[in-house]
Design brief:
By secondary structure, this protein is an alpha+beta fold. Helices cover 40% and strands 14% of the residues. The protein has helices at residues 2-11, 15-21, 48-65, 73-90, 104-113, 135-150, 160-173, 189-194, 236-248, 275-281, 286-291, 294-304, 315-323, 368-374, 387-393, and strands at 29-33, 180-182, 185-187, 203-207, 216-218, 231-233, 253-257, 269-270, 331-340, 346-351, 363-367, 375-381. Strand 9 (331-340) and strand 10 (346-351) form a beta hairpin.
Length: 395
């Protein structure tokens, strides 16, 4: 195997050839799989927070009622971007206006504005002649508009800036309906949200860091957490236990974390690889390993498959990676199941929002070590949390 790996690094074998010859490819057996709705595609938009969290609520509805819904991401984006712009203007531009967000944003939207089904608004991208979301032109228009208002020299702002911004939002996302019909019934967004069979107060977010006391709540310090919602801070082992308990008891988890690592591969896998052991397997010292491009590192990880050497995540390691900017908050996905490979290693089954891409058609198999190491925070139904943890948290 060592010689084959050396040849791979040296010759840059194509992904297709590796795939055909790869005897280390995982063969998965499902341990637990909870029901989810269909794979969506956020396309060229920074709305993973929107897609993953609405997918989470769709799964929650499916669990609670057996009914399948397709909730509207454009409605949430329209309301959320206006709220974020208002905050930026209030702070005279001293905060970030961007496409990203957190799992709390869709929950806040539903609690304050309601929600609509997908077909109550124009299909993503259709208003500007695209087949899916493309926020390139949209944000190139909206960002300078918000900045101009927020940094204005005016002694008093008129309310018209909101009218103008709402026009931009409606032009690219569609107008949010005040009333609509769904399956023969008339609804407002608020009455539709109330009809979905969920208690919107059941949802909490969880994290694990040492710069705040455990068993208390704090606002995780990342830019897209702009509403500053509080997350429960628990030790790493308890954080891991919450995810495991949720999935094994029929719940899904709206996960926010880091997918920028080389261990997160384009083929639908994610490993928290051990750098020192990977250096050895690459037939090199650290200098050579570091010289490899990210793509070549990822290709090597793909070729190793089930034999990727992994680190065991620790509390200290999580904190260090967070503080030195290695552990970032760059993607939201939905954890919905557990599978094991032919070596017995367990992975979380994770629904992505990049369409039916990768080896597993939009699903990623992410090792438990990867998830625990790279979690920024996650949203979960509080009833999915083990009873002893809930008792300590007082929820």
């Amino acid at each position: 195997m060592m010689m084959a790996l050396l040849a791979l690094v040296a010759t840059g074998v194509s992904a297709q050839d590796k795939k055909a010859d790869n005897k280390n490819k995982p063969v998965f057996t499902v341990v637990k799989e909870n029901k989810i709705t269909s794979i969506k595609d956020q396309n060229r938009s920074g709305t993973c927070w929107d897609y993953s969290t609405l997918s989470f609520f769709e799964a929650e509805i499916l669990k609670a009622t057996g009914k399948t819904y397709d909730l509207c991401e454009s409605f949430v984006a329209n309301k959320t971007y206006m709220d974020r712009a208002v905050q930026v203007v209030r702070l005279h531009g001293d905060c970030q206006f961007a496409q990203g967000g957190s799992a709390y944003d869709p929950l806040y939207c539903i609690q304050h504005y309601g929600i609509v089904p997908e077909n109550a608004m124009p299909f993503p991208g259709s208003l500007y002649g695209d087949s899916l979301n493309n926020f390139n032109e949209f944000f190139s228009v909206m960002e300078p508009y918000v900045k101009a208002v927020a940094t204005s020299n005016s002694k008093k702002l008129s309310s018209q800036w909101k009218v103008g911004l709402q026009g931009i939002l409606d032009a690219y996302l569609g107008k949010c309906p005040e009333t609509f019909s769904y399956e023969g019934k008339s609804y407002t967004p608020q009455s539709f949200a109330a009809s979905l069979g969920l208690n919107w107060d059941d949802y909490v977010t969880v994290t694990s860091y040492t710069h705040h006391p455990f068993w208390t709540a704090f606002a995780v310090e990342v830019q897209d957490n702009w509403r500053n919602p509080l997350s429960w801070n628990v030790p790493i082992d308890d954080m891991a236990r919450i995810i495991e308990n949720a999935v094994m008891n029929g719940y899904t988890v709206a996960w926010g974390g880091d997918v920028s690592e080389e261990g997160f591969t384009r083929q639908g896998l994610a490993y928290f690889y051990d750098t020192k052991k990977m250096e050895s397997l690459a037939g090199s010292d650290m200098a050579r390993w570091l010289k490899l491009s990210k793509d070549k590192k990822t290709n090597l990880i793909d070729s190793l498959g089930v034999n990727v050497p992994e680190l065991q995540p620790t509390q200290e390691q999580r904190q260090e990676r967070y503080d030195n900017w290695q552990l970032t908050d760059d993607h939201g996905m939905l954890i919905y199941g557990i599978a094991k490979d032919q070596n017995g290693k367990e992975y979380y089954m994770v629904k992505n929002s990049w369409g039916e891409t990768g080896e597993y058609k939009g699903i990623w198999y992410m090792t438990k070590n990867y998830i625990v190491a790279n979690t920024m925070d996650f949203m979960v139904n509080k009833n999915a949390i083990p009873k002893d943890i809930r008792k300590k948290l007082g929820i």
